[in-house]
Amino acid sequence: MTQDRINRIAVLGVGGVGSLAATLLQDTGFEVTGVDVRAPGDDLPYRFLTASVTDPLQLAQVLKEQDAVLSCLPYSLNKAVAQAAAAQGLFYFDLTEDVPTTQLILELAEHSAKLMAPQCGLAPGFVGIVGAHLAEQFDEVRAIKLRVGALPQHPTGLLAYSFNWSPEGVVNEYLNDCEVIEDGEHKWVSPMEWIETVHVNGVRLEAFTTSGGLGTMCDTYKDRVLNIDYKTMRYPGHCRLMNFFFHELLMRDDRELAGKILKNAKPPVDEDVVHVHVSAEGTQNGCMNRREFVRSYYPLEINGRRWRAIAWTTASSVAAVVEMVSNGRLPEQGFLRQEDIVLEDFFATVNGARWKAAEVRRPVV
Question: Can you list the domains of the chain with their CATH numbers?
Fold first, then answer.
């Protein structure tokens, strides 16, 4: 596969998602350099450097002679990486759900020589692409609703959860205010509220507000859509317990400790599932209708290794966006809003096709 704009890309943070993203990009034809503070134990199919990106000199050296950088680091480190990428004129990609980080990248993109593309994962990311695709089928749009649940297939305990994703990111989205459009008004609301019941492929779940999942959609659809919101899906009862943990026990005052406690209590599991429930409501030819994209994604074997659902869905999403930027399907400069990506173009990429082809029912073992 010939790459037009990007040949060399550094992937910062080669944990579960970063390692797979680096592998997928290498397989797609990019020259990948993985970077982390510790060398992974397994043999890697791409070049690897040991470096600390919190050191500006080491970060600058890592990015030297690269065309692009993908940050799979905790959200708190992305601002420095984005600033370094803009200073060196590199394409920038990340997976962040953090709103202040995205705002900084939006400002950097005004003067950057290359495209700045944050929020390229699952949510924000893929679900925004799907939501925009559904909304654009209507003449007038009443509502866009994005729902995602990354969950254990076989939950245990009252919390019914496992921290397969960054605990820092989960705590952040559970405690930060949430951007919505309600009855045409752009506003911020509290997290872990607006609880509703959602069924996905026969599984009963609860959904509640969390921060960051909409990405830039409120700005994009302001004055065009009456209602937009994002909610996280969990097994019933989860939200009540998390509110108790953060607010009655005051764990909101120490986010780092809260993350450590939760991950220790509910460590990652291999048998996970990603539920996606995206819908749009509106009028078409004068008739009110609702369109939905509802799927359940399970672990998948890639290159002889079985990957968790949250890992391959997130890694495939960002790898697909890198493909589209490189081959000219997306702009070379400016700021990329995920909702500007055409869903069929996304599915047409090597990595986006995985979303379309993957089993959406529990595979027979």
Answer: 8-121+307-357 (3.40.50.720), 126-305 (3.30.360.10)
